[in-house]
């Protein structure tokens, strides 16, 4: 068989971490984050190449071990590892130990938190689309830009009873020990839906103003939920915090892949990267027993 004299094609150069962070910060602008939040690059060499990027909700030990095992050059998480300032990261603390593992393994860590909540599309868009909602708009829009903001309000194609809609929510989200908590009559018709990925019980005024028939969110506390019910609604569906934000991961991964492939980067035009979404359940609860 004749031998080809053509040299094998050289692999496309990988984008640098600096390149990838620039893309992520265009999509999830850090100026959209709440003042108390901590977003952006936590650790990593900006000049290091990035070929594999993992996405997860929580930067916990199991997720970081998974990233190292999979050879991820970058791990993108929704929740910050450090929400408050620290004076050091010694390996004698559990968070410091995680930072040391990441650096030794060559895996950078990047956080997109409340800036991803406010983005369009963002965390609540992914939750709304998982529930087949359309005509989405922010639940609480940011001043100066009505397309951005926390939560989303959308419509079902046709009304359905609350019990059927709750089953829709349960089927759309990953299973957790806590499952769903529901406030409202099973036959209440549901057409307009408000959602907020993560803790959402500070937005009841906006939910009522939206005219939503039901509000899907997480971490509902007793008093705000009780007052919302006493005020005449809407119906409530309380889901696990982690589960409410998990649908965003694939959206974020696809956004990054598309941006790198289409626009390229200053050091690697038109290249591709691989991504994966962690399926590890990082909801903190392991079991639930019904009370008697």
TrEMBL record:
InterPro entries from the UniProt entry: DUF34/NIF3, DUF34/NIF3_sf
SUPFAM superfamilies in alphabetical order: NIF3 (NGG1p interacting factor 3)-like
Keyword Amino-acid biosynthesis attributed: no
Pfam families: DUF34_NIF3
Domain of life: Bacteria
Keywords from the named record: Metal-binding
Assembly description: Homohexamer.
Sequence similarity: Belongs to the GTP cyclohydrolase I type 2/NIF3 family.
This protein's name: GTP cyclohydrolase 1 type 2 homolog
Organism for this UniProt entry: Catenulispora pinistramenti
High-level lineage: Bacteria, Bacillati, Actinomycetota, Actinomycetes, Catenulisporales
